[in-house]
Design a protein that fits this description.
Elements (H helix, E strand, L loop, with lengths): L3 H10 L25 E2 L7 E8 L2 E14 L2 E4 L9 E3 L2 E4 L9 E10 L17 E5 L9 E2 L9 E6 L19 E7 L14 E6 L14 E5 L5 E10 L11 E5 L4 H10 L2
Parallel strand pairs: 9-14
Antiparallel strand pairs: 1-11, 2-3, 2-5, 2-6, 3-4, 4-8, 6-7, 7-8, 10-11, 10-13, 11-12, 12-15, 13-14, 14-15
Length: 274
């Protein structure tokens, strides 16, 4: 998600392949796909949020995280996207636009609330309780996404969204963040499809339905969604990191914090800090 010294530190400490939030694929010259090897968004997602960030160690580098509008004044994202040891928020977010730098509603960040049990994986394991809320300075008109009652069984079709890098490279100088929102069809994976100890009831193993594709740096905090019974979208996951340590984005599954598991905390914090 970041570059230079800051980015390398984040990649080491945050097990970040999301910042975003997970895994990706090498793209050929001229390919527009991001969330690497995804596609340009095929519809409007009014709940999608882009969160500009700056690396703590390199203020000159501008990165991005994703988020989901879960209330008229609240954005759900990954805790490592607001971790002051890793990043600095640029002060505003953009809600409901398919474009990273234009459209939608722009609001200032009034407050951030990270889960008290959040722990950074430090590059040796998965991030834990990797979920946080951003309170906006005033409400937006865009419609929030509903948090699902449960994430669905392994095999459930899902979709991930993000503005993350299109380039699957460890060289931060090669990261390219697309202007257009990207989407990728995925599925819920079984725990054994991620590394031992990575997936559990709080962390969802996610598998791409497109060969060699998944979320990557810059996608952290973004939504994993699935269809509800009426055909609308509901939120099941928050992009958190890779599902297997030490591999490139395209070489492993993604790991997503379960939104349904933390729904009680989310609603409590929104009520307490509203």
């Amino acid at each position: 998600m970041f570059s230079s010294k800051s980015a390398r530190r984040i990649m080491m400490r945050a097990t970040t392949a999301v910042l975003a939030a997970a895994a990706c694929v090498t793209v050929t010259a001229g390919t527009a796909g991001a969330v690497v090897n995804g596609d340009d968004s095929t519809q409007r997602y009014p709940f999608m949020v882009s969160i500009p960030v700056t690396g703590v160690d390199d203020p000159a580098f501008k990165g991005v995280c994703g988020g989901s509008l879960v209330g008229s004044q609240w954005v759900l994202t990954a805790a490592h996207c607001v971790d002051p040891e890793l990043v600095t928020l640029n002060g505003t977010v953009r809600v409901g636009s398919e474009w990273r730098k234009s459209g939608g509603s722009v609001r200032s960040v009034a407050k951030t609330v990270s889960h008290p049990h959040y722990r950074n994986g430090e590059g040796t394991g998965p991030n834990r309780a990797d979920v946080a809320l951003i309170r906006l300075d005033r409400p937006v008109v865009e419609k929030p996404v509903r948090i699902a009652g449960e994430p669905g069984r392994p095999g459930t079709p899902t979709r991930v969204l993000g503005f993350g890098t299109v380039n699957d490279t460890s060289d931060t100088a090669g990261w390219v963040f697309p202007d257009r929102l990207q989407e990728l069809d995925t599925r819920r994976g079984a725990a054994f499809e991620c590394a031992p100890g990575y997936a559990d009831r709080t962390r969802l193993c996610t598998i791409s339905r497109v060969p060699g594709a998944m979320a990557c740096n810059g996608d952290s905090g973004g939504p994993q969604i699935r269809r509800d019974r009426k055909g609308g979208w509901e939120l099941i996951g928050v992009t958190s990191g890779p599902g297997v340590p030490g591999v490139r984005c395209s070489e492993g599954p993604g790991l997503y914090t379960s939104a349904p598991v933390y729904a009680g905390w989310i609603h409590e914090m929104m009520g307490r800090n509203g």
